[in-house]
Design goal:
The protein has 296 residues and is of the alpha/beta class. It folds into two domains: 172 residues, 3-Layer(aba) Sandwich (Rossmann fold), CATH 3.40.50; 85 residues, 6-phosphogluconate dehydrogenase C-terminal like domain (6-phosphogluconate dehydrogenase C-terminal fold), CATH 1.10.3660.10. The chain contains twelve helices and nine strands. Strand 8, helix 6 and strand 9 form a beta-alpha-beta unit. It binds nicotinamide-adenine-dinucleotide and prephenic acid (PRE).
């Protein structure tokens, strides 16, 4: 199969891993997909939906058949999965991941797959949603979306090009970063907003008149809080994996809130107008650029 792979093992057949499998199947880049997971219910659903061709709850038993393994489980589970596959991998097998954090995953590769680093390609698709599980997998999730590769110094150019080619076949645009830059950027534009949405909705839900508030919550509330519907385990793992960068961002946000609080308390009309105008200009500019890139 030209530029494709024969057998792909997807560990964690949810939104991200399932969509990768579906997109590659549609592009004719993979012949056989084995889904590995924790729960039989989700794996059975993946099989019924045609997301995978075979299922297993035992990674060690199927790893030797893989031309490529994609780790698409929560980042907190990835070390255990690498450990399980390590003794069974074929020398040519590529191991990649889709985790939202990259510094921790690079360390895990070093710890558990030290003899296989040339074939290890850390990656992060910048696409997704608050939905999870095999039923959420979809063709087209990665169309015109970015995928950030953070290769290790030991990663072979062949393995890197192969993974880049597969993501491109899913419609994605490839970028490269160091793990540190990746984790800093995504703490700002992805991880912090998720924490803020979780904290805000939790705060509202804890109010004595929460039900009354929810009765009248509308599109502003919906748009600000959609991501608070995301998977708690996944976000617990991301938060702990990127703890240091997130603590910096939380402090920056705390200072911004403190400044805003002062403006509100002082009825500072000019200050408030300037705060909102600066944010609006930045948001409008970002959104125009996002649309120009073909993203929605
Ligand atoms: N959701 C997003 O928007 C998004 C975007 C980019 C990257 N990611 C990353 O992709 C990964 C998967 O996220 P998702 O949104 O597809 O989550 P998901 O919940 O839809 O799928 C994850 C799957 O992994 C399975 N799983 C958990 N522990 C496992 C284990 N030990 N062994 C095998 N399977 C296991 C779960 O049962 C689930 O089916 C995460 O690392 C996440 O950080 C998510
Ligand atoms: O759209 C969403 O719901 C997402 O949370 C997607 C999102 C993001 O923050 O943009 C979340 C985590 C990722 O690792 C990549 C993408």
């Amino acid at each position: 199969m030209q530029q494709g792979i024969t057998t792909l093992v997807v560990v964690g057949v949810g939104l991200i891993g399932g969509s990768f499998a579906l997109s590659l199947k549609r592009a004719g880049k993979v012949q056989h997909v084995i889904g590995v997971g924790r729960t039989l219910d989700n794996l059975t659903r993946a099989l019924e939906l045609g997301v995978v061709d075979e299922i297993s709850q035992d990674l060690a038993a199927v790893a030797s058949r893989a031309d490529m393994v994609l780790l698409a489980c929560p980042v907190g589970q990835m070390g255990r999965m690498m450990q399980a596959m390590a003794p069974h991998l074929q020398p040519h097998a590529i191991v990649s991941d889709a985790g939202s954090t990259k510094g921790d995953v690079a360390e895990l590769f070093r710890t558990h797959l030290a003899d296989h680093l040339a074939g290890c390609v850390p990656a992060h698709p910048i696409a997704g949603s608050e939905l999870s599980g095999a039923a959420a997998a979809q063709y087209g999730l990665y169309e015109k979306r970015k995928v950030v590769l953070t290769p290790l110094p030991e990663t072979s150019s062949g393995a890197c090009d192969k993974v880049a080619g597969l993501w491109q076949a899913c419609g994605a645009v490839i970028h490269r970063m160091s793990p540190a830059e990746h984790d800093s950027v995504f703490a700002t534009v992805s991880h912090l907003p998720h924490l803020l949405a979780f904290a805000y909705v939790g705060m509202v839900a804890g109010k004595p008149d929460a039900e009354r508030c929810f009765d009248f919550a509308a599109t502003g509330f919906r748009d600000f809080t959609r991501i608070a519907g995301s998977h708690p385990e996944m976000w617990k793992d991301i938060t702990l994996a990127n703890r240091s960068a997130l603590l910096d961002e939380l402090e920056r946000y705390r200072l911004a809130l403190a400044a805003l609080t002062e403006q509100v308390a002082a009825s500072d009309e000019a200050g408030l107008a300037s705060t909102f105008d600066t944010a609006r200009t930045a948001r409008v500019g970002w959104y125009q650029r996002f649309l120009r890139e073909g993203q929605t």
